[in-house]
Design goal:
Largest sheet: none
Mean pLDDT: 88
Number of strands: 0
Order of helices and strands: HHH
Strand content: under 5%
Helix content: over 70%
Distance between the termini: 34 Å
CATH architecture of one domain: Up-down Bundle
CATH class of one domain: Mainly Alpha
Oligomer: single chain
Radius of gyration: 20 Å
Number of helices: 3
CATH superfamily of one domain: F1F0 ATP synthase subunit C
Structural class: mainly alpha
């Protein structure tokens, strides 16, 4: 227990912050990837059910994926700003 406290005291606060930023970035990328995959899955299921609506479904899928990617990029930019400021 005492050795853990000594190690934590020796670790620089910036190192812990960088670890938190790396963890936050990985969570953001993982969540964005999973949600874009979910969009693709449901779009393909919808097109299989109604092939005549494939154009509208594809358009909505692309818009939704772009919005998710935009939010992910925004969050990553925030993390990068926090890292260097």
């Amino acid at each position: 227990m005492n050795t853990l406290l000594i190690v934590l005291q020796l670790i620089d606060g910036a190192a812990i912050a960088k670890l938190g930023i790396a963890l936050g970035a990985s969570i953001i990328v993982l969540a964005a990837g999973l949600n874009i995959g979910r969009i693709g899955t449901t779009a393909l299921k919808s097109i299989a059910r109604q092939p005549e609506a494939s154009g509208d479904i594809r358009t909505n899928m692309i818009v939704s994926a772009a919005l998710i990617e935009g939010v992910a990029f925004f969050a990553l930019i925030i993390l990068i700003i926090v890292l260097f400021v």
